[in-house]
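Reviewer 2 asked us to include a model.

Predict the structure of this chain.
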Amino acid sequence: MRVLKWLAILVVVVLAAGAAIWFTAGDTAKLPALAGYGPSPTLPAPNPTLIPTINQADGIGWPAGGKPTPAAGLAVAAFAGGLDHPRWLYVLPNGDVLVAETNTPPKPDDMKGVKGFVAGLIMGGAGAGTKSPNRILLLRDTNGDGIADQRFTLIAGLNSPFGMTLVGNTLYVADTDAVLSFPYHDGDTQITAPGTKIVDLPAGTINHHWTKNVIASPDGSKLYVTIGSNSNVGENGIAAEAGRADIWEVDLKTGAHRVFASGIRNGNGMGWAPGGALWVAVNERDEIGSDLVPDYMTSVKDGAFYGWPYSYYGQHVDIRMQPQRPDLVKSAIAPDYALGAHTASLGLAFSDGAKLGDTYAHGVFIGQHGSWNRNPRAGYRVIFVPFNGDKPNGAPQEVLTGFLNADGKAQGRPVGVVIDKQGALLVADDVGNTLWRVTAK
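Predicted model (structure tokens):
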């Protein structure tokens, strides 16, 4: 049945490519997009179809002078353009901005055969088929005008780098297969010292979710690392998931690590909320309908299990995963706040230090990279979720839109988000190859 399913998809995709359009198979969302947001999203019955919904927006880049549309009261301009697949950001204490220019590593056993061929077509059409630059850029605005006038290759020769964090004079970088440390001193524009391995990370020839993020604890004694699953919903076997779909805690004194939280299908952005809790943005599973399953952000409890692959949004069982684990499902925790089905919510940045007006004073910015498995499309925007204290409080608000043009093509796709030293919001756009800067008018 699985082979027949993907053969059918192949026929659809090839026909679509020949017609220069993407054919939308599968189902159509029955619920309004906002039904998949908030602390209690609507979760309809699963609707798996022989041919999953394939509705990827082709990545075309921005026309000359093009840029996203900011919300009322905000302005947007390019901080840096002409980048090479920028995905993740980090701001150093002196205001320099680090950009991980990165893409998928070789993973020959991920979705082989017909399914792999189809996935390659989808990725290529979305602008994600380019070779990984494997470097960290440093961007510097020397005159404070909001435009980077200097750029340097800080570290080269990495292996699909993603997360970055600084503790004292040590910069930690999460490659796809290891966390590395590098010596750093204020003002450095190049690091030539080889990286020192802190801990190996699960990778290998499948390495389905390859991005690994890293954040330091407030006291700098520990690192927290996101490690995505090796499949959509366990189809490669549970043995292939060893050490994955987890957040690891790494002790910097000993190098020892432990699973801090599990059952998190594909965690990406992390941040510390007011009150000290660790939060993470998570991509949930695909292929059970346009309305399922909402991506989410949640505070992360030590030792907690969040369901993947056996259940979603707490204890909603996913029957595709066999054999089941009712003991684990019974312990599964529902996340705090849904971020919409298939939005690919990746970037997460709390608004601490932001100078964007009262509307954005307390809450979190989310970069939504955009859907492939939903009709109509969802995401392709940056949103803000207001907080009251340490909890989400209210509906999401659009901050940047216009990444899709009138023809449904992706001019850009937002990924990492961060607040810069001047209080502006920086947004990495890996299709537009631009770093956008959002300010108050």
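The radius of gyration is 20 Å. Helices lie at 2-18, 113-125, 326-331. We have added this to the supplementary material.
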